[in-house]
Structures are given as structure tokens and as C-alpha cells.
Fold this sequence. Notes:
Helices cover 40% and strands 16% of the residues. By secondary structure, the chain is of the alpha/beta class. It has a 6-stranded mixed beta sheet with strand order 4-5-13-10-11-12, sandwiched between helices. A 4-stranded parallel beta sheet has the order 8-7-6-9, with helices on both faces. A 3-stranded antiparallel beta sheet has the order 2-1-3, with no helix packed on it. Strand 7 (155-161), helix 5 (166-174) and strand 8 form a beta-alpha-beta unit.
Amino acid sequence: MISYKSHLTHLECTKTGDRYDSEPLQNLSDQNAPLVARYDLEKLSSTFSRDTFRDRPPTMWRYAELLPVRNPENIVSLGEGFTPLRKVDQLAGWIGLKDLYIKDESINPTGSFKARGLSSAVSAAIERGACGFTIPSAGNAAGALSAYSASAGCDAHVFMPKDTPLAFKLECEYYGAEITLMDGLISDCAVEARRKQQESGWYEVSTLREPYRLEGKKTMGFEIAEQLNWEVPDVIIYPTGGGTGLIGIWKAFDELEQLGWIGSKRPRMIAVQSEGCAPIVRAFQSGKQEAESWENAETVASGLRVPGAIGDFIILKILRESGGDAVAVSDESLLHYSRKMSEYTGIFPAPEGGATLAALMELRDNDWIDDDEKIVLLNTGSGFKYLEALQGVDEELAARTMLSLLR
């Protein structure tokens, strides 16, 4: 049993900075903006050091003082977090780099980084009185919510696009979730989930529409710093749909600096999207502060098929503050580099993970990354959950190639 206690103090509106009570269940602020958790970092910095974590269990809850659950008995954990940060020298040598790492989230419970966010969100919500949850999802988040709800003895109500890969549908079914399959995209699922939530009183745990999934995701940033001996890399390349993980990693580094555990250096943050759904890339390249919704979104990387992100303004601000970039890659490219990542590392990435390598190759071609920089790619999930989709895409690509040869 975890014995260390949260130092959570309050929530804060990301648009106005207004303070909100962290005791009751909360969703968005009065400005319809995401809320973020704040902690008593001054007290923490005076009571323990980064060495405190050295002998703690290798899960994300080793950082419990910086997570939102006050009573450890309310933590719903399946052993998520503290995934390996693998130095991939063979892949680095093939590219011509010296210091390349992959943060491999595929070994989390339920096979993706979504386990972190839903462990945190479900635990915090249960502590505040909820035990019925709803989520719109293109796959991994639905599976994670279903698993953590099952572990806690709570109900999960999932809204998914009909063309979501079979593995995700079966996963939710086996965990006992109620599944509603819908025509359209995750944005259409969100409208229906929100309508049902208002009728039923379920607690909505959609991306950034509650404050605590972000807190679970930020532990990736804590781990990257700890695993690099309390340094940060030069570049982090992140596959960006809703963008919670990118925002969370940035938040983690800010908290670590306030604690005095790292300096002011920050990595250049790179958001990667698919050419078939790239609202953040378009907004970044146009110099806009918010992203317009993407019409007719389509990509094999279902986690990137997010036509509009509620945290778009936060993502764009981070990219610019960090001196980073936003890159769109084709499905053909992300699938090709998913294979290359597999061949050179033994990691079977989700298509979203392959997208980070595709973006790295594009950035290298544009002389944006130096040979000796320390680079971290985020593989956010397992390719095993996309077998149906990957097989279908491979057959389609083969047919296209054959047609081109016959012309």
C-alpha cells in the first residue's frame, strides 16, 4: 500500500488563471477551458529531494505527492508507469545520430500510455464520489477506462467510431463496459457521450475535460527526467491527437524546476500529426493561437484522428515557447517507419509511435536536428492492438503499388 500523500492544493483555469476547489468533482472551468492541478511545491521542496524516489516501487504512483489522490486507499492501479526509456543505438546508427531514445509506453497495462491518465482520473473521481464513467474514444482510452473501471467495480460507458479496430472493441467488451458504436469520428462520439452523460449523471473523463488524466500523463515527464539522471533531452517528438501527454510532459518539467530538481533548460517539443488530420500543424504553420476543426479526418493512426482538441491553445503555446515544431506525415510514411522502428529496436509500435520516427526523418532531412542531440521519441502504444487496421492498410497499399506498376 502506498503511504505517501498528495500535496494537491487547488485547480486552475488554463485561460484565466482563476482558482477552483479541488475537493468536488470538476470538469471544465466557467470559461469552458481545461482545469489543471496545482500543488504545494514549496513545501515539497523543503521536505524531500529527488533521491526520495530511488527505492520506491516502479510505477507512476511513486510520485504520489505530485498526483491528485489524497487517500492512498482510493488509488486504482494495475502497475502502470515507469516504462523503459530505451537507448536505441542500432536505430540511431542507421539514422546517423548518437543519442536516440524511445520511451516505450506499449508495456503499460492495456498496452498504451492511456493507462496512466485513466488510473489517475478514475482514482481521483472515485475519491470524489463517482463510480460511473463515460468517454468518447478512438480506442486506447476506452480500453483503459474499461479496465480501471472493472478493477474498481465501477461502470464504464464507451462511445467509439464503428471503424475502430476490432481489438479495442473486444477489449472493452471483455472488461464489461457498455459500448456504443457510432458512425463518424471521435468528435461525433463526444457529442453523444455528453448528451447521455447529462441524462445519466455519469462522470465524463474525456481528454482535458476533467483535470486528472493530465496528471497521470505528466508522469512520463517525471520518468524521462529521472531516467536521464535528472536532465531533460534536447528534443521530444510526440504523436499528438488530443495532446494531453505533450501538455503533461511540459507541466512535469515546470514542476520539477520549481522543486529545484532540474534547471531551466527545456526540450524542443515536436507535435506529430497525420496529413489526414493535422489541425495543430496547420494552426502552428499559420501562426494561429487556436486550431480550426479538421474536415473529413482520416488516418490509420486512430489516436491521431482527432479533428479538434480542446487544449489546442495550450499545445500551440508550448510548441512556440519551446522553440519546437509541428510536423504532418503521411500514413504511408508512418507505416513505413513503424516497420523500421520494429526492425531496428524490437519494439512493435502503434502507428502513432511510427509517426514519431517518420517526423524525425523529415526533421533530419531539413537539418533541424543535429547529430549529437539527445532525442526522445514517444511510442504511445502497442502495434498488436492495430493488427486488423494494419493488415487492411498493407493490402490497400499493395493494391495501389500494383496498379501503378501496370499503368
